[in-house]
């Protein structure tokens, strides 16, 4: 007759309870204990998944002293779910839940996207890119990007146009995966992608619940390492309700980024401001008022050297 293992049963019970109710750091600590892995081994497994996280960071995460925030850290959390043999999205869900209460008040204050929505969209983007077999930005470095966003007469996000300058750091690169995250309630099935210059549209993937669309843009040539390339595309949206901001995410810092938001003459905001956000979990900062040009009804920002995280423009309606 097999011997009972009370300690293992307790560990499993603790893990099940933590995965159901959280918080994130308790669930992570219980999962690591259940697998009996020292943090050095966890770090080794993460490196085999192509994710670099220090032992100190892992220790802080399971103590609740810090919370994963950066895109690389969120990728680590998804890898941990696999390494620790946990249900898919179990840790990410707890991570989103832990930031939800604070974000509700922030959403009421400035209409910004919640921590949950940013984390969920990040996860969806990773899955869509995996479906393409091309990690985001694979083989390309963005030297410059100019986005023009058009807000329509119904105060909706009507269109986004992007003009990019990229440089290949691998031989054979011949495509770019563009990502569009619509406003809450957006319907990706009704969005359209237009290849405007030096590219053509390939495969398109959509995720209805988060309003995310990913489109493959095929170049007219295969680039060699060091080659630069210019291309332009647009996404016709107009599928959601009233728009209050546009947020741009940067994964690989270094290039110049410019954002211009134009408004229909019959629907002008009363004030506009720019903002920055280092990560989905971090508070917004870098807030500065932006004057609305009288003739073109637009505002803009320029980041000479883009940093990882989020930057955007928000506006208030009368």
Task: Describe this protein with a few key phrases.
single chain, 318 residues, alpha+beta, Immunoglobulin-like, 2 domains, six-stranded mixed β-sheet, four-stranded antiparallel β-sheet, 7 helices, 13 strands, disordered N terminus
Q: Determine the structural class based on helices, strands and strand pairing.
A: alpha+beta
Q: Which regions contain 5 or more consecutive residues with pLDDT less than 50? A: 1-10, 99-111
Indicate the mean pLDDT. 85
Fill in the CATH topology of the largest domain.
Immunoglobulin-like
Order of helices and strands: HHHHHHHEEEEEEEEEEEEE
- Helix coverage percent: 25-40%
Total number of distinct structural domains: 2
Please give the CATH class of the largest domain: Mainly Beta
Tally the helices: 7
**Beta strand %:** 25-35%
What is the CA-CA span between the terminal residues? 75 Å
- Give the biggest sheet: 6 strands, mixed
Radius of gyration from the CA trace?
22 Å
CATH architecture field of the largest domain: Sandwich
Which strand order do you get reading across the main beta sheet?
A: 4-7-2-1-9-12
Number of strands: 13
Assign an overall shape: globular
Question: Which SSEs are present, and which pair or pack?
Answer:
Layout: H1 6-21, H2 24-35, H3 39-48, H4 55-63, H5 71-83, H6 90-110, H7 115-132, E1 140-151, E2 157-168, E3 173-181, E4 192-197, E5 199-207, E6 212-223, E7 228-236, E8 245-250, E9 256-263, E10 271-277, E11 285-290, E12 298-303, E13 309-316
Helix pairs in contact: 1-2, 5-7, 6-7
């Amino acid at each position: 007759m097999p011997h009972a293992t009370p300690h293992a049963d307790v560990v499993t019970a603790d893990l099940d309870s933590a995965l159901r109710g959280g918080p994130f750091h308790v669930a992570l600590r219980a999962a690591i204990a259940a697998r009996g892995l020292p943090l050095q081994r966890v770090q080794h497994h993460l490196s085999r998944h192509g994710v670099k996280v220090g032992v100190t960071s892992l220790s802080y995460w399971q103590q609740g002293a810090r919370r994963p925030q950066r895109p690389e850290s969120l990728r680590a959390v998804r890898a941990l779910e696999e390494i620790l043999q946990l249900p898919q999205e179990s840790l990410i869900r707890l991570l989103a839940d832990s930031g939800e209460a604070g974000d509700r008040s922030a959403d009421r204050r400035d209409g910004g996207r919640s921590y949950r929505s940013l984390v969920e969209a990040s996860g969806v983007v990773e899955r869509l890119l995996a479906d393409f077999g091309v990690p985001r930005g694979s083989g390309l470095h963005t030297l410059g990007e100019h986005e023009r966003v058009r807000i329509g007469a119904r105060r909706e996000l009507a269109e986004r146009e992007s003009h990019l300058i990229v440089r290949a750091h691998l031989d054979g690169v011949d495509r770019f995966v563009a990502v569009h995250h619509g406003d809450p309630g957006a319907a990706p099935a009704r969005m359209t992608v237009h290849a405007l210059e030096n590219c053509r549209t390939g495969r398109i993937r959509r995720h209805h619940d988060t309003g995310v669309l990913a489109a493959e843009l095929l170049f007219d040539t295969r680039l060699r390492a060091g080659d630069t390339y210019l291309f332009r595309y647009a996404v016709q949206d107009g599928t959601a309700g009233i728009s209050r901001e546009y947020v741009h995410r940067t994964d690989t810092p270094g290039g110049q980024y410019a954002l211009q938001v134009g408004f229909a003459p019959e629907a002008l905001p009363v004030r506009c401001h720019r903002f920055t956000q280092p990560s989905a979990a971090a508070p917004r900062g870098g807030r500065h008022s932006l004057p609305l040009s009288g003739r073109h009804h637009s505002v803009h920002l320029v980041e000479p050297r883009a940093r990882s995280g989020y930057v955007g423009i928000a506006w208030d309606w009368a």
